[in-house]
Design goal:
The complex is a heterotrimer of chains A (313), B (265) and C (295). Chain A contains 16 helices and two strands. Chain A has 313 residues and is mainly alpha-helical. Chain A has one domain: Orthogonal Bundle (ABC transporter involved in vitamin B12 uptake, BtuC). In chain A, strand 1 and strand 2 form a beta hairpin. Chain A is globular, with a radius of gyration of 19 Å. Chain B has two domains: 174 residues, Rossmann fold (3-Layer(aba) Sandwich), CATH 3.40.50.300; 79 residues, no CATH class. In chain B, helix 7 links the parallel strand 7 and strand 8. Chain B is globular and about 60 Å long. Chain B has 265 residues and is α/β, with parallel strands linked by helices. Chain B has eleven helices and ten strands. In chain B, the strands form two sheets. Chain B has a six-stranded mixed beta sheet, with helices on both faces. Chain C is mostly helical. Chain C has a single domain, classed as Orthogonal Bundle (ABC transporter involved in vitamin B12 uptake, BtuC), CATH 1.10.3470. Chain C is 72% helix and 3% strand. Chain C has eleven helices and two strands; from the N terminus they run H-H-H-H-E-E-H-H-H-H-H-H-H. In chain C, helix 1 packs antiparallel against helix 8, helix 2 runs antiparallel to helix 3 and helix 9 packs across helix 10. The interface between A and C is large, with 41 and 44 residues. Bound molecules: adenosine-5'-triphosphate and magnesium ion. The site of magnesium ion has 4 residues of chain B, from helix 1.
Chain lengths: 313, 265, 295
């Protein structure tokens, strides 16, 4: 049932460029798709595994830079760039994940936060590689099999295909026994160990997969923007991903997807003042954490549970 | 009979407190062994050390002929030792069915690739586990909670879920830390019968419990700890007449114990 | 390259000042973590507010340094109290992720409200001391730097006395060491937590006030410092106050030395590299706290 709805929604989304010729609306559509993918990746590591990772911002940025540099500096094409973005991020995630995950989840949160900051600093200060604050403008749109995705409308298909593929992959993962094991690790790690399951490989893989998907999403988004500079690592992106996951319901696959599509329009609605927009984001975060810490999906589930309890009486 | 679990000279101290001070014990294959002692005598610490949840300061643990001393907890579980915890641990936000399924998943042949691709090997493993889970749910009498998040269960019911989960993969030995603390008397009787039944079918148990009647009825051998040392060991009847045990643990004189035994008989 | 001794000394002095500022922030974080097991993401914003408080207090006080400092610290302690009562008091222990997300939201709100009200234009702060200072040989240090460092050192002395010798300090240490035992002997965790937050806010206010004459004051000034303070809390061992101080001063020195000889990127990356290295060697930080039991 859910899958059928998802399929219809995916096809409806695919038709967006046929329904409008407004580059603005199509651009919002691309944001919605890509942000949803990044949020779903955050959901994998935070919602399912219970590890709050701020490194997503760093992976997003690395993904953007790797893809752009592959094309501009190293003469590769866009598709290879996205692949490299995923691979390099997975490796980076393993490298920082291994020492950190041995400690405790507190250290993990802080470590990932510092990592995100480090990536920002590199983007800004390692001028030889990243060209510093000026960034890399005029990123060429990709082509495949002789077809050039030159306009926003055409590039939309790339973003669409990428999103559907990534979300499909994440769904297969989260709904499998692997996803259930991640939830078990989040809920009671000692018990998981007592049942013969080593938590570390699960956590590390979840982190690496989440990093790879986020990085690839960053790469695709950069080429939509057509430029990459240190602003690509603005904390605003991280907040957007977080708010999508929290409002949708951490640990609920479909909740986060729905929230991603719905909330991606939010920044556009709040476009009138950058400051004001951020204040509203902050308020949403604080209020959501108090009013419904488990998100819409959690709230629905809570009600369903209450009904079941009723029936048992 | 041979010892499936052989523990020698276990030592563990926490910042000066000698929680275990050279404890040796053996559990015969196919037996039910009780481990009793006053609060703080080191029973849970012994379990934690044996199952790899605490680093031990000294001693040796051998499970079915393999030295498992100091191995990580998940290795020891895979080697065939399943344990429960004194403060109940279950997955509160997962259904009873999932709780039991997870407990067995490490022991079936499905790899992560099978899981991701949902191969036939995976589906067979899942079906097999489901059959076992339904049996155990019947046993603990929680059939109508099958699809329900275990968080809403009562404390005693949660203890039963933890017990069932430990039994899921047919382990070589099941180590239970106070399995019936907080469970009502009639249910305790039922669990007693069920454990005896499982034991007859070949399951080995090491049980920590303060409920003397439960231990007396079930255990073939009982080991008494006091202040990190083994105080006595023997059959339940022998323990019941051991003056040191009576004094240290049961707080009775031998005459009182005898009177009680006669009353029970 | 010959290393100039005077240059090195200058770097070292700068490093100590920097380290003391880091320490003021990190100690507050560590204190709050020790008592409540949460992290206050908005801690850097308290520092920023402290600096802003100084920019408003100084003109009113006729540029007098000490009264303005006192006003700034008191103001931030008040802010800390409000934050505790309105937000943090609602958290249960071990709601670590939730605490981060809530205080993250708070931090965003504070930064952008400040930016909205006072714009992002950096402000200079002038005090009665202006740019006067002392010269030892060819080294020159401004009074504001010296006083800032002395005030920080004095604050640590005061903190030591409070934690060691007062009722509420002892209660704080008791909770940080063993929560259950502390509750059993009748320590009220809410009161202790509130005191800890207010005290930590005070230290942060001091840090902000002390650096306001040294650095430009902007709504974003707290952000970069807080990231480093987080790392320091990890390096020093979560909840370990002396550990945080030692780690902070060491980092100040290391950054200053690196900054003196290499590109800025290395200076900024140092804290991250050190943290990774420490976690590899000692997963619980340099100076760890007691473990928890699982059974
Ligand atoms: N993590 C720990 N840190 C410090 N001391 C501990 C720890 N765990 C146990 N102890 C101490 O070790 C001793 C043995 O504790 P243990 O929990 O093994 O006792 P027990 O026999 O299981 O008691 P009970 O019947 O109350 O469950 C006690 O003195 C206890 O205080
Ligand atoms: Mg015990």
């Amino acid at each position: 049932m859910k899958l059928a709805i998802a399929l219809v929604a995916a096809l409806a989304f695919a038709a967006l460029p046929l329904m409008t010729s407004s580059n603005y609306i199509i651009g919002v559509g691309i944001s919605a798709l890509i942000f949803t993918v990044a949020a779903a990746a955050l959901n994998l590591i935070y919602g399912f595994t219970g590890l709050l990772s701020f490194a997503q911002l760093g992976f997003w940025g690395i993904g953007g830079y790797v893809t752009a540099l592959t094309v501009v500096t190293f003469g590769g094409n866009f598709w290879w760039g996205v692949l490299w973005a995923a691979l390099i991020n997975a490796v980076v995630a393993l490298a920082i994940g291994y020492p950190t995950l041995r400690t405790n989840r507190h250290a993990f949160v802080i470590m990932t936060l510092t990592f995100a900051l480090l990536v920002t600093l590199i983007a800004r200060d390692w001028v030889d590689l990243t060209r510093g604050p000026l960034g890399i403008p005029n990123l060429p749109k990709p082509s495949a099999f002789g077809y050039h995705f030159g306009t926003t409308g055409q590039y939309y298909w790339v973003a669409w295909a990428f999103s559907v593929a990534m979300l499909g992959f994440l769904y297969a993962l989260c709904s499998s026994r692997i996803g259930r094991t991640l939830v078990a690790i989040k809920q009671n790690e000692p018990l998981v160990r007592a049942q013969g399951i080593a938590p570390m490989p699960y956590k590390l893989s979840a982190f690496a997969i989440s990093a790879a998907v986020t990085g690839a999403a960053g790469g695709v988004f950069t080429f939509h923007l057509g430029i990459i500079d240190p602003l690509f690592l603005d904390f605003y992106y991280m907040q957007t991903f977080l708010i999508i996951v929290i409002i949708g319901g951490a640990g609920s696959f479909w909740g986060v997807i729905a929230a991603g599509i719905a909330l991606s329009a939010l920044p556009e609605v709040l476009r009138f003042s950058a400051d004001f927009r951020m204040i509203i984001y902050g308020v949403i975060l604080v209020v959501a954490m108090f009013v419904m810490p488990t998100g819409v999906a959690g709230w629905l589930r809570e009600r369903q549970l209450a009904r079941m309890r009723e029936q048992l009486r | 009979m041979s010892a499936i679990l052989q523990v020698t000279e276990l030592r563990k101290s926490y910042a000066g407190v000698h929680a275990l001070d050279g404890v040796s014990l053996a559990v015969e294959a196919g037996s039910i062994t009780g481990l009793i002692g006053p609060n703080g005598s080191g029973k849970s610490t012994a379990i934690d050390c044996i199952s790899g949840f605490q680093k031990l300061d000294g001693g040796k643990v051998v499970l079915a002929g393999n030295d498992i001393t100091g191995q990580p907890a998940h290795h020891i579980a895979r080697a065939g030792l399943m344990r429960t915890f004194q403060t109940v641990r279950i997955y509160e936000r997962l259904s009873l069915r999932d709780n039991l399924a997870i407990a067995a998943q490490q022991f079936d042949p499905a790899t992560w690739l099978d899981e991701f691709l949902r191969t036939r090997r995976y589906r067979q493993a899942v079906d097999k586990a489901e059959v076992r889970a339904r049996e155990l749910v019947e046993l603990i009498g929680l059939k109508r909670y099958w699809e329900i998040e275990t968080g809403i269960l009562s404390y005693g019911q949660k203890k039963l879920v933890a017990l069932a989960a430990a039994l899921m993969p047919h382990p070589k030995i099941v180590v239970l830390d106070e399995p019936v603390a907080g469970v009502n008397p009639t249910r305790i009787r039922e669990i007693e019968v069920a454990l005896a039944e499982l034991n007859r079918a070949g399951e080995t148990f090491l049980i920590v419990e303060h409920n003397v009647e439960f231990i007396t009825n079930l255990c073939h051998r009982v080991i008494v700890l006091d202040q990190g040392k083994k105080l006595a060991e023997g059959t339940a009847a022998e323990i019941h007449t051991d003056a040191r045990v009576l004094e240290a643990y049961l707080g009775m004189t031998p005459e009182m114990a005898e009177a009680e035994m006669r009353g029970a008989a | 390259m010959t290393v100039d001794a005077v240059y090195l000394l200058q770097l070292t002095l700068n490093g100590i000042t920097l380290g003391l500022i880091y320490a003021l922030i990190a100690v507050g974080l560590s204190l709050i973590f020790g008592v409540m097991e949460i992290i206050n993401f908005a801690h850097g914003e308290l520092l920023m507010l402290g600096a802003f408080a100084m920019t408003f207090a100084l003109p009113v006080m006729g540029l007098l340094y000490w009264p303005s400092l006192a006003v700034a610290i008191l103001a931030i302690m008040l802010v800390g109290l409000v934050i505790y009562e309105v937000l943090l008091a609602r958290l249960k222990p071990d709601e670590f992720e939730r605490s981060i997300l809530i205080t993250l939201g708070l931090s965003i709100i504070i930064i952008h409200v400040m930016q909205y009200l006072f714009t992002a234009t950096p402000r200079m702060v002038d005090t009665q001391y202006g740019f006067e200072g002392v010269s030892i040989g060819s080294i020159r240090i401004t009074w504001t730097r010296i006083i800032g460092a002395v005030a920080a050192a004095a604050a640590f002395g005061g903190l030591y006395v409070v934690l060691r010798h007062t009722q509420f300090g002892r209660a704080m240490r008791a909770i940080a060491q063993n929560r259950e035992a502390a509750l059993m002997v009748g320590i009220r965790p809410r009161v202790v937590a509130r005191n800890a937050v207010v005290l930590a806010a005070g230290l942060c206010g001091l840090a902000g006030a002390a650096i306001s004459p040294i650095q430009l004051v902007t709504p974003y000034m707290g952000q970069f410092l807080i990231f480093k303070a987080f790392a320091l809390v990890i390096i020093g061992g979560l909840g370990n106050i002396p550990g945080a101080i030692v780690a902070a001063i060491a980092l100040g020195l290391i950054e200053s030395w690196i900054g003196g000889f290499y590109e800025i990127i290395w200076q900024e990356a140092a804290v991250f590299v050190i943290m990774i290295a420490i976690l590899f060697v000692r997963p619980d930080g340099l100076f760890k706290r007691g473990g928890m039991r699982v059974g």
